């Protein structure tokens, strides 16, 4: 398609949903699936599905199949083939090799125990104190590989959370790209996958907001474009905890899809009519497509979603 006035090809809009198969989909994941899908589909864009099973020890057998089955039952249809991170090691290796060739990586011998005293970053992980940055101490061997994070602030305009700034070097330090267990880190996988799939916008839960600056650092070093980001409010249980496998959040598989999607639309501030769920799944989707507005999504929800906790 051409942009008539400038004769330039129109930029294709590409969004994605990227669940980790650590358990069944819960209400919080459904919110991310719905928001990311509506945002691109209402503007004629493509919506991709990626199963984030790069962290193989955390993947639960059968969980990915359950996720695909649930999405289909809820009326989601993704474009193209599902991408599985566990099958993309070669792509991560290539990106890793490019960073290594550019001198952007270093081997690190530090154990978790040795770093136990360092300061905490915003997301609760340990800030790397730089111990092995200038080279390994004699007799020590690299366990993991870290990115030499360049100094400076990263700034981005989040579609829901507003202007976000982070100094990754100061707040997080040199973060791990190849883990001590030989697996590539989520941060590298996500950046390579989004870039190779041509993803132009990332809508996901605000629990990942602290990862975004790290991902932008990587995009810049790898010469990838930075997508537009919008971080959706996080669904919580009655105790105020984020819905997750750890908090034993209820699976949405087997629940009434029309009801759950209407609750997700309500959670996202879209103001669906009270009786919409009774009209059935197809009508819910039609209403959502006709009314979606990112501007109405609240930054956070103070009320928990106990029905889904
Ligand atoms: N796999 C991540 C999760 O399930 C989402 C990552 C992302 O959307 O970038 O929480």
Fold topology:
Elements: E1 2-3, E2 8-9, E3 14-17, H1 27-41, E4 46-51, H2 63-73, E5 83-84, H3 89-101, E6 105-108, E7 144-147, E8 154-158, E9 162-166, H4 168-171, E10 176-178, H5 186-196, E11 201-205, H6 209-222, E12 228-232, H7 257-267, H8 281-291
Helix pairs in contact: 1-7, 3-5, 5-6, 7-8
In short:
With 309 residues, this protein is an alpha/beta fold. Helix content is 29%, strand content 15%.
Description of the molecule:
This protein has helices at residues 27-41, 63-73, 89-101, 168-171, 186-196, 209-222, 257-267, 281-291, and strands at 2-3, 8-9, 14-17, 46-51, 83-84, 105-108, 144-147, 154-158, 162-166, 176-178, 201-205, 228-232. The protein is globular, with a radius of gyration of 20 Å. Strand 3 (14-17), helix 1 (27-41) and strand 4 form a beta-alpha-beta unit. Helix 3 packs across helix 5. Strands 3-4-5 form a three-stranded parallel β-sheet, covered by helices on one side. The termini are far apart. The longest helix is centred in the first third of the chain and has 15 residues, at 27-41. 29% of the residues lie in helices and 15% in strands. The chain has two domains: 14-86 and 189-298, Rossmann fold (3-Layer(aba) Sandwich), CATH 3.40.50; 90-178, Glutamyl-tRNA Synthetase, Domain 3 (Glutamyl-tRNA Synthetase, domain 3). It has eight helices and twelve strands. The protein is α/β, with parallel strands linked by helices and 309 residues long. Glutamic acid (GLU) is lined by residues 18-20, 52, 190, 204, 208.
